[in-house]
Write a structure and sequence with these properties.
The protein is an alpha/beta fold. It is built from seven helices and nine strands; from the N terminus they run ααβαβαβαβαβββαββ. α1 (8-27) runs parallel beside α4. The longest helix has 20 residues, at 8-27.
């Protein structure tokens, strides 16, 4: 039987409890890997696709949306944590809008618009993300892109078997005082690739941004482009 502490709902509950501390950590740039590597990496990856409109899935307090909007990109951010969306809305400027919405409940009818690109920056940690990939096809213009930045599977496996499954979370490496740690669902590299292919995306880029101190990947970034056909592999 699966541990009841490992579920998508537990992830969301933990983020609700830790939202205020997370905002403080982001404001103070207290995550070295983000400050030195991954923030710039995802901005550059988005910029390379040259989108005019972006859906920021799991936008949190809105830092990425603000960075992209500063370059004239229209951004809609969604997140399932009310406190984070409130901060994002308070800080919103030109070219930005934010909505309280979990990616599990995301659909084209809800947003009533399409995008050139959808980006998920360290926001797909649950088990039930297949539905999101399915809906992403309906949220993008033909030829649109889906970008996912996540933990690098080869480096976050620890001593456990290299296979999909739930893992205990940790706030290690983040300079903050958090109440508890959300669990997360580990996926192998092949599992990530299969999610893109099975849902009609041609994988156009796979990046492994290197940490300047360790020389090892700080993250994994996958970029898929929506195919012109129906998009589902036989």
């Amino acid at each position: 039987m699966r541990d009841c502490e490992f579920s998508d709902s537990k992830i969301l509950q933990s983020w609700h409890r830790n939202a205020r501390e997370w905002v403080r950590v982001i404001e103070e740039a207290a995550i070295p890997s983000r400050r030195r590597v991954t923030d710039r990496a995802i901005i550059d990856a988005v910029r390379a696709c040259k989108p005019k409109s972006v859906l920021d899935v799991g936008c949190g307090e809105g830092w990425l949306a603000r960075a992209l909007a500063a370059e004239g990109i229209e951004v809609c951010g969604i997140d399932g944590v009310a406190q984070l969306i409130e901060v994002a809305q308070h800080c919103a400027g030109k070219h930005q809008e934010f909505r309280l919405l979990c990616y599990e409940n995301l659909c084209a009818k809800t947003l009533q618009r399409d995008f050139d690109l959808a980006v998920c920056n360290f926001s797909l940690f649950g088990e039930s993300i297949e539905g999101f990939f399915t809906e992403a096809r309906e949220l993008l213009y033909p030829g649109g892109h889906l970008l996912v930045q996540t933990l690098h599977p080869a480096l976050c496996c620890d001593k456990l078997c290299y296979r999909d499954g739930w893992r205990a979370g940790t706030w290690e490496g983040i300079e903050g005082c958090f109440a508890d740690t959300p669990p997360w669902y580990f996926r192998t590299l092949s599992s990530w690739v299969r999610l893109f292919i099975d849902n009609g995306f041609a994988l156009t880029a796979l990046q492994e941004p290197l940490h300047p101190d360790t020389g090892k990947p700080a993250s994994l970034i996958l970029c898929g482009q929506l195919r012109s056909d129906t998009g589902v592999s036989p």
